[in-house]
Amino acid sequence: MLPDKSSSVRVLLLVISFLMMGLNSHAATITVGKPNTSCPNAQYNTINAAVKAAAPGDVIKICPALYTEQIIVTKPLTLQGIVSNVNGNEVGRVLLHPALQDLQNLPVEAVITVMNTSNVTIENLAIDASRNSVQGCTPEIADIHFYNASGTANNNTLSGAQLAHPQSCGAIFPGNGFGVLVDSNTPGPFQVAIENNSIHDFTKDGVQAINAGVTVDVEGNNISGVGPSIPFQFGIFIANGAVGVVKQNVISEGDCGTLSVPACIGARSEGVTLRAVGDGTVIDHNIITRAQSGIFVNGANNSQITNNLISDIDAMSGIDIQGSASGYFSNSLIDGNTIFNVGPIDGWATRDGEGCGIDEYSGTGVSGNTISHTTVNDAYCGVAAVAADQVASGSYSNTLYTQLNADLNSFPPAVEP
Q1: Is 148 left (phi over 0), alpha (psi -120 to 50) or beta?
Q2: Going by DSSP bridges, is the β-strand pair 243-247/205-210 parallel, antiparallel, or unpaired?
Q3: How far is CA 206 from the centre of its chain?
Q4: Least C-beta-crowded within 10 Å: which of 120, 205, 334, 349?
Q5: Residue 323 to residues 262, 330, 364: CA-CA distances in angstroms?
Q6: Domain boundaries of the chain, sorted by first residue
Q7: Maximum pairwise Cα distance, the chain
Q8: pLDDT at 20
Q9: What's the pLDDT tens digit per position in 280-296?
Q10: Closest C-alpha among 395, 342, 357, 398 to residue 373
Q11: Residue 223 burial by CB count (10 A; 0-12/13-18/19+): exposed, middle or buried?
């Protein structure tokens, strides 16, 4: 059994918080409220004014209202939406809905940009990036952008990071339109916790974390996409050396609808996607439904994909694994996953080599992994595994084929015996 890498990530985040405790012990509280709203003792009318005036470590409490501001944070701060009493009713929605524009020549137009700093917390805010004017595929847009930065995004609603014409931007990576984007152009390390948010109405990824030195803890979020009507949409995407702990999220994308199986694969949606990630990435106890691939791993080492519940997958497989992005998928544990309703069980499965609970792609650097305690019900096959891996155990119900254990150029016929 591999060690739980999520523990080390949490310890690292706790250490950073501990180191900042001395700073926060002297933190001031600043209140922001719009004129003519119920916000006692508001010191500033705009969030930007409060951010500019705040000292590192201060807490900025934001009263309910509509704020049409883009925010750039470059020092340790907390931005926190609070509840106010309006006409005897408690109101607790703080909406940031600006007309996005290019600020400081940054490559991403985000509602909130956190850059070149650490210990920034964003919580209890409704953030909407729909008022953007991007007509092509650039610049990138996001609700929250952590750039060379560490911090936490917790209990927010993130929406509207959509392109006007997404069909023209077909690249799997990096794409455009993110709920939370975490990236860097310096070595880091940077640690970001993305927890308990509602993320929806995005074009590319609910969460994207890229580059070595970036570590993300993505936990307890509800992520809802629109599926293959927007090419290559992923709920959570971690890539290019970034390390992730992805736990207890609920992710829903969308089914093929009227698209043919080949067209749907070409415009697919995936629940969690790993692409050449850093060692020790964890995907655990997530619920993933209505996608073309529940979890797609393309390049990882010493990773854990455990205890996930995946259902209602069409065109591809519950878990697809290959190593071509980095040359390997190795030394990893795939254990305790439960997968239901993978289809269709027809000739497309034979032609495309899909439709299984777990499907490994031969000849891509997959080796030394263990697949165990897999439960599959209602699929073309239970596990299609290359010879270099070990399938230790599994329970396969209503599968046309239980295990396909050899490297195959094509799957056997999808014909009832």
Answers
A1: left
A2: unpaired
A3: 5
A4: 120
A5: 22, 8, 5
A6: 1-217, 253-417
A7: 76
A8: 47
A9: 999 999 999 999 999 99
A10: 395
A11: buried
Asked if 197 and 155 touch (Cβ cutoff 8 Å), the reply is yes
Q: What pTM does this model have?
A: 0.93
End-to-end Cα distance, the chain: 38
The one-letter amino acid code at 409 reads N
Among 173, 204, 183, 161, which Cα is nearest to 107's? 183
**Dihedral in degrees, nearest 10, Cα atoms 60, 61, 66, 72:** 20
Tell me the Ramachandran region of residue 368: left when phi exceeds 0, alpha when psi lies from -120 to 50, beta otherwise: left
Q: Is the Cα torsion angle 52, 53, 55, 59 positive or negative in sign?
A: negative
Residues of the chain with pLDDT under 70: 1-25, 407-409
pLDDT digits (tens, 9 = 90+) for 298-336: 999 999 999 999 999 999 999 999 999 999 999 999 999
List, in sequence order, every beta strand (DSSP E) within 82-139: 84-86, 89-91, 94-96, 108-123, 126-128
By the 8 A CB rule, do 112 and 143 touch?
yes
The structure tokens listed for 39 are: 């916000």
Please choose, from the candidates 161, 245, 264, the residue with its C-alpha nearest in 3D space to the C-alpha of residue 206.
161
b/e code 148-163 from CB counts within 10 Å (16+ = b): bbbbbbbbbbbbbbbb
